[in-house]
Amino acid sequence: MQSPPIRRALISVSDKLGLAGFARGLLECGVEIFSTGGTRRHLESEGIAVRDIAQYTGFPEMMDGRLKTLHPAVHGGILCRHDRPDDMIALTEHGIVTFELVVVNLYPFETTVAREDVTFDEAIEQIDIGGPTMVRAAAKNHAFATIATKTEQYGEILEQVKAHGCTTSELRRKLAAEAFDHTARYDRAIADFFVGAKAEGPFPGTVHLALRRRAALRYGENPHQQAALYAVAQPSGANLVSAMQIHGKELSYNNLLDLDSALTMVRGFRDPAAVVIKHNNPCGAAEAATPAEALRQAMAGDPLSAFGSVLGLNRLVDAATAEVLCEPGLFIEAMVAPDFDVEAVELLTTRPKWKANVRLVKVGPMEAPTEAWSYRCIEGGALAQQADVLPDPENEWQVVTETQPDEQQMADLRFAWAMVRHVKSNAIVIAKDRTLLGAGAGQMSRVDSVEIAVKKAGDRVTGAVLASDAFFPFPDSIEQAAAAGVTAVIQPGGSKKDADAIHTCNRHGLSMIFTGRRHFKH
Hints:
Distance between the termini: 55 Å
CATH topology of the largest domain: Rossmann fold
Strand order of the largest sheet: 8-13-12-11-9-10
Number of helices: 19
CATH class of the largest domain: Alpha Beta
């Protein structure tokens, strides 16, 4: 349906960004502009001719701006159906003009309540009444009215008005959908604020996760499962959802899971680091002086498992780093990093056999993650918890054995402890020279995890360190590690058998640190 020509625009916004340019463009197209209070003053200060809505309605703003647009002369002009003679006759009888364009964004309620010092009364005053009413009216009547709720919509609207004097039905319907989404999120934020006032500790009474589909994936974990990628309303920090894929095949469900694990692991290191992921667990990882050195060491940690893996680096991928992956016999599925330089992209997309398929994903700066929430679905609901992303306070660590770790062992213990939190429980990590040599993951017995990690490390285990995500209920795992050649252990402590574990370490001359913090990852 073709919209009637846009003759009048009603503008009332909280966010004035880009408004003056948009309004000037509308005036050049012959559109008459009506506006309210602060918006009118802003436009007039920019030299833009505006009609005051209060003069039009004959009803002044009152109650500190609480009441200004709730008037039949306003809403009749927005809601009228231009193809209904009775609607148009009613407008004429009551001296009401039509508004074919409504430009409204709402009071910054979410920003206001996010302030630590906000009072309840301040929050209440940021609940917009007239704004959502105009938005919903224009969106409902999108067959004849165009509604703009975001500054980024101005360009497309103005382009169509300049070209045709009106907007297309496709654009109006799209803008209406975005408008209803806008008011729904706004009302949800207000409801959450009121519910939050009755929260139990940090947990609100109700949690609403607004997710928008970003892509339909080829399939899920298995080919017979359908899958899609969704994004939260405002993704923040380095993440796979808003990342840029610069080369390769479409990312799969499993690719995204593994890349997310790689990103989570590698961003926690200060020095150049690389991780090699297989089925959500690290099969290789290293910290070194350069990204190329870190990657080479990480790939050497478990070369067999590294074939067909997913990689993560916390530094720009340069040519030297790319050269490591161009060596014969290597194959990787995907790679995530802050960025890739031009020469690295050239090498990775022209040299290896897998050049056409490898997925290269850049996520920008990898700042250390801040405290956040994590959610996991279970049948009938979900679990919520604080995400285990904050570094452990090393000043609380205790050396509990007669033997003290030396400087090199401490560096390796820090590295191993940083890695073990990312391995599925029961988790054991063996490391040396800040390189992952072996990991035991997801076993029902911690003894089995130690056995697997030792087997993976092979002859390199001599002089290595061992990290455990939780305490040792019995000293048998330490006996096993000592017999293999491990020289230092880091674990949370807290078992009734801690004394036995300490005694076993002392008997074998091992040093052991208790961190006081467990890192189960179920």
